[in-house]
Design brief:
Two copies of one chain form a homodimer. By secondary structure, chain A is mostly helical. Chain A has two domains: 15-80, Winged helix-like DNA-binding domain superfamily/Winged helix DNA-binding domain (Arc Repressor Mutant, subunit A), CATH 1.10.10.10; 83-124. Helices cover 58% and strands 3% of the residues of chain A. Chain A is built from five helices and two strands; from the N terminus they run αααββαα. A two-stranded antiparallel ribbon of chain A has the order 1-2. The interface between A and B is large, with 36 and 37 residues. The first copy, chain A, binds a DNA duplex (30 and 30 nucleotides) through residues 14-16, 40-42, 50-54, 56-57, 59-60, 70-76.
Chain lengths: 130, 130
DNA sequence: TTAACTGTATTATATCACTAATACGGTTTG
DNA sequence: CAAACCGTATTAGTGATATAATACAGTTAA
């Protein structure tokens, strides 16, 4: 069962997008694998304190992207191969870092300053894998 | 006059927030200084192709944060001191990097992988100051 | 088998970001 | 002074996000 233990929603970005990101990052890190079952819509909505429709929207979009498979009545499962994992990895790196690098350069930082700051932030941030 | 030449809005985040960020990043980099005039609401809305009210919202929020001063009939101007610049700098670093570092760790990257990727992205991205 | 769970669908409501169309009064400049 | 700017305010409408309350049919397990 895919875990949402360390999922903490932050306002500003839609919750259904954050759920999608959470699962995709799990796929990239290897903690989410093919065959894994997802929490049911109702269970996860209760766990996160949001509406079931919000979960359904996230799962529906994941299914449209062919990352999960749903069959009416049964649970939904992760369906991915190695090629898909690589694609998701590239996709997340792109969206996550492109804007950050642009922002740092726009603030006048040098490449060295940027990597130094990120290194120092790496130490203090909470993590499942140091 | 503060330049919006290199400003290219990306959908997903509200335009008024992007305008605020653009100005704050300019302040941090030193390209936006105390006394600089801002484009009028109408001019900037035409330039960016958005509604004047959107610009007004951005400027109004900047004024509430005491970064600009507006007087009915005249242009709006940047009003900041060194202490304010330092505060904005800390604020932007915080919001920009904290989430990125969290995301990269959640994807299972090591500190070395992260800094390496950022270094390589630094080269290809467009910039006003290489 | 049947009860409990599952995915799926529908309709209604509220809020926010953004657009649109005006209007009013103060400032600047020729 | 007067025209051309400027900031400010109001009202109305649209689309996206999220909530709320149901309803129906398929799957699973005691």
């Amino acid at each position: 069962m895919i875990s949402f233990e360390h999922f903490q929603p932050q306002d500003g970005t839609p919750i259904y997008q954050q759920i999608i990101l959470h699962i995709k990052r799990g796929i990239v890190s290897g903690s989410v694998m093919a065959g894994d079952a997802l929490p049911s819509r109702r269970v996860l909505s209760t766990l996160l304190g949001v509406n079931p429709n919000t979960i359904q929207k996230a799962y529906h979009l994941l299914e449209e992207e062919h990352l999960i498979a749903s069959h009416a009545g049964a649970k939904s499962y992760i369906v991915i191969d190695n090629e898909t994992v690589a694609r998701i990895r590239r996709q997340l790196m792109e969206t996550e870092l492109r804007g950050t690098v642009r922002a740092l350069k726009q603030m006048g930082l040098s490449k060295e300053e940027a990597t130094t700051i990120i290194s120092s932030l790496w130490e203090e941030a909470p993590s499942s894998q140091t």
